Amino acid sequence: MARRRILHVDMDAFYASVEQRDNPSLQGKPVVVGGNTRGVVAAASYEARQFGIRSAMPMRDALRRCPDLCRVPPRMSHYQTVSKEVFRIFREFTPLVEGLSLDEAFLDVSQSLQLFGDEVSIAAEIKRRIRKCTGLTASVGVAPNKLVAKIASDLDKPDGLCVVTPANLRTTLDPLPVQVIPGIGKETLARLQRIPINTVADLRLAADRDLESVFGRFAARTRERASGIDERPVVASRTDKSISAEETFDVDLSNRRDLRRHLLRLSEKTTGRLRSKELVAGTVQVKIRRDDFSTCTRQCALRPPSNGTETIYAAAGRLLDDWMAENPDAKIRLLGVGGSELVRDAQPDLFAPAVTAGGSALDQTVDQIRDRFGDLSLGRARTLD
Known about the structure:
Blueprint: E1 6-11, H1 14-22, E2 31-34, E3 41-44, H2 46-49, H3 59-65, E4 70-72, H4 76-91, E5 97-101, E6 104-108, H5 113-116, H6 119-134, E7 138-143, H7 146-153, E8 161-163, H8 169-173, H9 186-193, H10 200-205, H11 208-215, H12 219-226, E9 242-253, H13 256-276, E10 280-290, E11 295-306, H14 309-326, E12 332-343, H15 361-373
Parallel strand pairs: 2-4, 7-8
Antiparallel strand pairs: 1-6, 1-7, 2-3, 5-6, 9-12, 10-11, 10-12
Helix pairs in contact: 4-6, 11-12, 13-14
């Protein structure tokens, strides 16, 4: 079988970099994108990472590490718009683009070499076009498969280009810490270090009994990964299983009116994301986290499926009201609204109003304004304090 040419393109500190690009006063400063002080960091600039700040870190921990941290609220619809520009560039080189998130993707360019040159030239040209069109940088890993390409893209950041070939695969992977292999978390790492297995080479050369004691029936597959073997194809038809938005509050809430206001705001975010992907949801979920960190979800079906703000909000409101009736004294720390059972088109009931992927005329107008001026530029009066 012919050798595949796989790229893993990873935008550098994507959300934070977009904010620094759009606001020159943030350039060169430690920046995080995230909600309030009880939420988590969604993205951290490289200046912030020098303080040990990382994505998913509690915001309070980040502020303790860097009191001068610049905190910016997320603008998801804006990041989605920039992401579309980046993915458009990917598809100029190959239709085999497997998006992993807004800011990273696998590309199989094996069939593109005659048109655009070798895989390294393609990677360099993609980086150049991204910088020219968006003003942002990306790091690219070039390898014979997805596993090694993803590892490679992280070896030369930011704005890097790391090439791994069959000739240098072992010399590249062997010295790396064993935790670069997907699926090795803190507990597994501790067990490996007791053997001791510390590097990818240690993992590749380990005795069968040692690997089986840690990985069980997955021991052989783990050795393959340490050897840089991965036969998974790039799949261009990845689909979203769910789309949601959630918020952690500065102060625990119990007042129904306050919760309803936040619920509407979250419904706006979720439906905006659905409409941007031309999807409708057949199920609505509400996520509720109490002050003791216990979390529950409630869901209901939507017939016909919808991405209309008022429809999703009405369903989410009923779910929240039912939960609050069962938990009348509860204090809520986090609230979320999501949609699942996503489809491109929905066939409505014969006598039901037509549902389009773009939502109502009002929703479409709001989406257009927010795409241009940001999430905070326009909102329903009911979401205001």
